[in-house]
Amino acid sequence: MAGKEIRVPDLGNFKDVAVIEVLVRPGQSVQADTPLLTLETEKATMDVPSPDAGIVEAVHVVAGGRVSAGTLVATLKVADGAASSPAPNAPPPAPPPASPPASAPAPSPASPPTPSPAAPPSSPSAPSAPSAPPPGSPPAAPFNEAGFARANASPSVRRFARELGADLARVPGTGQKGRITSEDVKAFVKSVLAGSAAASGQASAPPGQGGGLPRVAVPDFAQFGPVQIKPLSRVQRISGPRLHASWVNLPHVTQFDEADITDLEQTRQALKAKAEGAGLKLTPLAFVIRACVKALQRFPLFNSSLDASGENLVYKQYMHIGFAADTPNGLLVPVIRDADRKDIYEIARALGELSEKARTGKLAGSEMQGGSFTVSSLGGIGGTAFTPIINAPEVAILGVSRSSLKPVYRDGSFVPRLMLPLSLSYDHRAIDGANGARFTAFLAECLADVAALTEAVP
User: Fold this and answer.
1) Across all residues in the chain, what is the average pLDDT?
2) 202 in Cβ contact with 212 (< 8 Å)
3) Angle at the Cα of 363 (from 43 to 153), degrees rounded to 5?
4) Is the model more confident about 117 or about 344?
5) HEC states along the chain?
6) Taking the model in full, what pTM does it have?
7) What are phi and psi of 252, to 5 degrees?
8) Residues facing residue 46 across a β-bridge
9) CB burial class (10 A; 0-12, 13-18, 19+) of residue 14?
10) Angle, CA of 5, 6 and 10, to the nearest 5°
11) For residues 401 and 234, what is the distance between their CA atoms, to the nearest angstrom?
12) Which of 60, 244, 252, 428 is flagged as catalytic?
């Protein structure tokens, strides 16, 4: 077999185009026109297809990189004389009209032009009319065109989903940054055929609403006064359905408690100058995460997950702690790996580096995966308590609100103490109330013992 170089075709006026997904790996067999990678310009996403059938010998680009016309994409092993060499500057195949970019919803030409009453863009009840079903069969579910257009998927995956009749608005993505892959579409179709999705004949639920659940009636808000419609951010479109799935599928219980951090705050203020000299910002969150590590070591149940069957607990021998980061594009959850092997200063450094990446949009997908426990801190903003949603498949999440001075009765009198509100949400299938109370009580003890928090990790 001969080696064949595959290069990026002519991209018009675009240069340094972002590679958002690499779809093949070395050793993989591909057919002619199989998408090799997906590029994203300011106006559209496009696939770079393989010109011939063969075996991928090497891939020369990575997701997150940038390419221009003529950039070497991959080396393909093809049969001798089986394929002709295409012109390196040939334009890429245009995406089908039914596959607009996620930021530009467009109606599908696959729907017949059946006249229907006009509906507002925000209404979930305005899909195109389906074709008539065969006699004796249940009526087909109307297609959610608006949700399909907003789905985070490449043109080839959109085309594949239409061929299978899969509603992309209901397909959870497992690719980079929540992108829907062809494997996700296949898994969704299999689940529907197995009967785990909504029953046949029911209208497909819009994004963020579970099949089989009552829909929320959405009126035409413009009838009550002027309105302005703004699309959800990409992060919100990805995280929203996941949060909804966690809230619907996990029986949440939230345990509230308080921790005395008077000594902790005094020590933190004393260490701030030393930390700043080392280029670190020593925040209260670093101490909270260090205390969570100690609590997870005492109560490993909170560092577990239910397996796919729901009948076994998977106890993780690692502690990767996620934390909620507020960014201009929405909420992200970077993960501090092996937090149990880091002292307070190393945790502070990881917090600073990951937070900066999250704010500047440079956080890699791998830096948001593998978490075993999550902390969501609103202390810098305010609030007295809240009920955080579990970051499934984890079984617990800690919410931290703003600390405040309170009178605490000690030794026969009231003394001012700085108290930190804690809100622990946990999956009641795995954790009962007694364990939840024990966890927060021990966590409060850890936060009060500042000497143990600042000691070196053995």
Assistant:
1) 81
2) yes
3) 40
4) 344
5) CEEEEEECCCCCCCCCEEEEEECCCCCCEECCCCEEEEEECCCCEEEEECCCCEEEEEECCCCCCEECCCCEEEEEEECCCCCCCCCCCCCCCCCCCCCCCCCCCCCCCCCCCCCCCCCCCCCCCCCECCCCCCCCCCCCCCECHHHHHHCCECHHHHHHHHHHCCCHHHCCCCCHHHCECHHHHHHHHHHHHCCCCCCCCCCCCCCCCCCCCCCCCCCCHHHCCCCCCCCCCHHHHHHHHHHHHHHHHCCEEEEEEEEECHHHHHHHHHHHHHHHHCCCCCCHHHHHHHHHHHHHHHCHHHHEEECCCCCCEEECCCCCEEECEEECCEEECCEECCHHHCCHHHHHHHHHHHHHHHHHCCCCHHHHCCCCEEEEECCCCCCCCCCCCCCCCCCEEEEECCCEEEEEEECCEEEEEEEEEEEEEEECCCCCHHHHHHHHHHHHHHHHCHHHHHCCCC
6) 0.58
7) -80, 135
8) 39
9) middle
10) 135
11) 27
12) 428
Angle, to 10 degrees, between the axis of helix 284-298 and the axis of helix 344-360?
Answer: 120
Question: How many Cα atoms are found within 13 Å in the side-chain-facing hemisphere of 327?
Answer: 23
**Which two structure tokens, joined as six digits, stand for 190?**
């299999």
Distance CA 291, CA 26 (A): 44
Give Cβ neighbours of residue 38 (< 8 Å, ≥ 6 apart): 19, 20, 21, 23, 45, 46, 47, 48, 154, 155, 156
Mean pLDDT computed over 407-427: 96
178 has a pLDDT exceeding 90: no
Any catalytic annotation for residue 244? no
